[in-house]
Amino acid sequence: MKHPLKYFCFLILLLAVSCQQKDELVSPPAPYGPVPTEAQLKWQQMEMNMFCHFGPNTFTGKEWGDGTEVEDIFNPTQLDCRQWTKIARAAGFKGIILTAKHHDGFCLWPNPESEHTVAQSAWRNGKGDVLKELSDACRQEGVRFGIYISPWDQNAPTYGTPAYNETFIKTLESALTQYGEIFEQWFDGACGEGPNGKRQVYDWPLFNNTVHQLQPQALIFSDVGPGCRWVGNEEGRAGRTCWSLLNTDGFTPGAGAPPQDTLTVGNRQGQYWIPAEVDVSIRSGWFYRDSEYPKSVEELMRIYYQSVGRNGLLLLNVPPDQRGLIAAEDSARLMEFAAALQSVFAQDLAQNASEIKASHVRGEKNPITQNLKNRTHKTSLSANVQAYGAANLLDTSYHSYWTVDDSVTLAQVVLSFDQPVKFNRLMLQEYIPLGQRVSKFHIEIMLPDGKWRTVATETTIGYKRIVLLPMCTTKAVRICIDESLACPVLNRLALYKDEVFLDFKE
To answer: How many helices (H) and strands (E) does the chain have?
Structure first.
């Protein structure tokens, strides 16, 4: 050849172009179906919040008052909202929601639209304001603040007439404009008989629009959202299948809500992103009574696994007593609960894996095995493996994930260990900013003879799924995505060992 140097340069150029094409990063998956807003994602990441039922019922022993209670009956002698928030933070709760107005109509703040409030009581000479004290305490302790305002009002003279909706709007304006940021506005659909025998026709669009105008970042809770939904029971249990999607057209809160089993499960092809909130009380009732006792740690752990562990958010009611304090036995139980969670979830055993193999990686033609012994060394990995490889499942950064090509809906990941690992809890998370996709998966472990055994078969994952397993000892775990509405996108895989609560069945 007359020009060997020119030929050599041509080969180098071809090789460079080939490597560049091989290492070209493909685009990420497009969002599938409804996806959470930024506020909904932030809410879901809170995972556990505290509910505080507090008001005249605390002093009468009733669950539902009737609006005829004398205002002076509300008289907490040692109210200390800072105690509430310190306990909440120590127990792992990220927010507190207070019953600012329950069905009896009594307002825990001086609401100018009512004559049934703390301002008419002798407590603190009519100058008290529980919302102010709690919102201040929440800011001091770094706990988010939310409020419950029942639309039902057994004290308001206009209840049962069209004029009441305007009264309720002014009540919302009073509560939502004086106490800083509200992360959640809690509505229920309770609708009792008005004093003139008429049932109130609530103007839900007006109510919701008012909240959105005054507190645009706040999620609205009700049977139909739109921010988050009731889970359909008060047992602390989301569905074993739990979609964050819900069809709400034609439904309203209360009597017009979707069936309770639909609320528990959601809708596979739901039109709106309305995740499940799981409300349950630490005691048998919602308001404090001396005759009741807090649930055991075992019961609280079961509730955690069946709420947070099933793609829900846990809202645990801890009612202050007649002093205005969280009772010592409730506080002690919460600390035991927090310690139990810490004992289970402090150590992710998956972090000890030696390698992870994916049957598919987005932008790659062949299965990809990644060595996990030196995860910081990524120079030998293609851009697609770095961006979408299965090792991202062990990365605690929320926005890194494993995913596959758009045409792939069946995929597997195998996590391998040099030494046998012992675990009985497996956690998976979908990257929900791109939608909820997985509708069926199963888990296998490798036996000593090299054969695989299925130890669990489940359906949805969502934000977080914790699968309760028999105690497993193995050198390899395989997660098999058996059905997905679009290419699966997972951002976390973790293994844990619960050495105390072994007998739970989902």
So the answer is: 11, 18
Residue 96's φ and ψ, nearest 5 degrees, are -130, 135
Q: What is the pLDDT of residues 214-232, one digit of tens each?
A: 999 999 999 999 999 999 9
Confidence class of residue 43 from pLDDT cuts 50, 70 and 90? very high
The 10 Å Cβ neighbour count of residue 27 is 9
CA distances from 150 to 95, 192, 320, 416, 463 (A): 19, 11, 19, 52, 29
Going by DSSP bridges, is the β-strand pair 465-484/219-222 parallel, antiparallel, or unpaired?
unpaired
- How many angstroms separate the most distant Cα atoms in the chain? 107
What is the 3-class SS of 57-73, one letter each residue?
Answer: HHHHCCCCCCCCCCHHH
Cα distance between residue 146 and residue 95, in whole Å? 7
According to DSSP, the β-strands at 438-446 and 465-484 are: antiparallel
Token pair for 147 = 């409020």
**Stated length of the chain:** 506
Residue 340 has pLDDT above 90, yes or no: yes
Report yes or no: 194 and 222 within 8 Å, Cβ to Cβ: no
Global model pTM greater than 0.90: yes
3-class DSSP string for 403-427? ECCCCCCCEEEEEEEEEEEEEEEEE
CB atoms within 10 A of CB 36: 21
3-state helix, strand, coil in the chain (%, to 5): 30, 25, 45
The residues, ordered by sequence, that sit 6+ positions from 474 with a Cβ below 8 Å of its Cβ are 417, 420, 421, 445, 446, 447
pLDDT digits (tens, 9 = 90+) for 384-405: 999 999 999 999 999 999 999 9
β-pairing, 95-101 vs 402-403, is: unpaired
DSSP state of 393: G
Q: Which residue has the tokens 């009073």?
A: 174
- Residues 441 and 263: their CA atoms lie apart, in Å, by 22
Residues paired with 458 in a beta bridge: 441
What is the C-alpha separation between 452 and 386, in angstroms, rounded? 29
Helical (H) or strand (E) element with 384: helix 383-388
SS (H, E, C) 140-208: HHCCEEEEEECCCCCCCCCCCCCHHHHHHHHHHHHHHCCCCCCCEEECCCCCCECCCCCECCCCHHHHH
pLDDT band at 136 (very low <50, low <70, confident <90, very high): very high
DSSP run (H or E) holding 228: strand 228-230
Sign of dihedral through CA atoms 204, 207, 212, 215? negative
- Give the C-alpha separation, 318 to 86, whole Å: 13
Mean model confidence pLDDT for the chain: 94
If you search the block for the tokens 């801890």, which residue do you land on?
Answer: 318
Phi first, then psi: give them for residue 89, nearest 5 degrees: -65, -40
Answer yes or no: are the C-beta atoms of 76 and 123 closer than 8 Å. Answer: yes
Closest CA to 51 of 103, 111, 94, 110: 94
Roughly how many angstroms between the first and final C-alpha of the chain, as a whole number?
74
